[in-house]
Design goal:
This protein has nine helices and five strands, in the order βαββαβαβαααααα. Helix 1 (14-20) links the parallel strand 1 and strand 2 (24-26). It is elongated. A five-stranded parallel beta sheet has the order 2-1-3-4-5, sandwiched between helices. Helix 3 runs parallel beside helix 4 (95-101), helix 6 (145-155) crosses helix 7 and helix 7 packs across helix 8 (178-187). It has helices at residues 14-20, 58-66, 77-84, 95-101, 127-139, 145-155, 165-176, 178-187, 195-212; strands spanning 5-7, 24-26, 42-45, 70-73, 91-92. By secondary structure, the protein is of the alpha/beta class. Helix content is 45%, strand content 8%.
Length: 213
């Protein structure tokens, strides 16, 4: 049986993916990639291109599933497409996937980020990670659910290019107060509470267990 194919780079680096699973690791999925997979291939989609005609279309995923390609997804584009193709046989898991299923996030806005096309290093923060931190803070009673909602509404007004850490912290400070935001950052650390990376880890760990059985 051939090794699984994993499409990643942003949410989880290709180097990290290879330490978790004996797989063929490829760059973020784009239009045409799934059409080239052999029948019966096991594929995991974590990241994908989001610009214009490059994004992998839902019809391409459905064609692959009908050919017997086993596709799972999490974290980013994988979570979105898994939600959209859940009734067609694509498997989704993780916090981001569940957020799509419950309607807390929609479309690509919150998973999108600007990144270096060579290293895949993210240059902006995907808002889904901020949402995860804000929801954790409501559980910890650092802020109210209403405050978290208003914060997300305000942050979503920022263009993707302006969603860097400094701008996000300044926007939250204007909404909630600097002292409160300092306390919030001590409770949750955006770098340590990277839900996209956590979901990607979970997906690959499950695939690794399946391949070892």
């Amino acid at each position: 049986m051939s090794a699984p194919i994993v499409f990643t780079g942003l949410s989880l680096s290709q180097e990290e993916a290879m330490t978790l699973l004996a797989a063929e690791v490829r760059p973020p999925v784009k239009r045409g990639d799934l059409d080239q997979l052999s029948d019966g291939t096991v594929a995991a989609i974590i990241d994908g291109e989001l610009s214009g005609g490059s994004v992998v279309p839902l019809d391409e995923i459905r064609r692959a599933l009908r050919r017997g390609v086993k596709i799972s997804g999490a974290a980013s584009v994988g979570a979105l497409r898994a939600y959209e193709a859940r009734e067609d046989g694509m498997v989704g898991l993780g916090w981001v996937y569940q957020a799509y299923c419950t309607g807390r996030i929609r479309g690509i806005d919150e998973i999108a980020a600007i990144y270096d096309p060579v290293s895949y290093r993210s240059l902006t923060i995907p808002l889904v990670n901020v949402r995860f931190c804000l929801e954790r803070l409501t559980t910890l009673r650092g802020i109210s659910a209403e405050e978290a909602h208003h914060a997300m509404v305000s942050l979503k007004q920022l263009s993707i290019g302006k969603r860097d850490r400094r701008t996000i912290v300044l926007r939250l400070s204007a909404l909630l107060g600097r002292d409160r935001v300092r306390k919030m950052l001590r409770l949750v650390r955006p770098a340590g509470d990277d839900v996209k990376k956590s979901d990607a880890y979970e997906l690959l760990r499950i695939l690794a267990k399946g391949s070892n059985n």
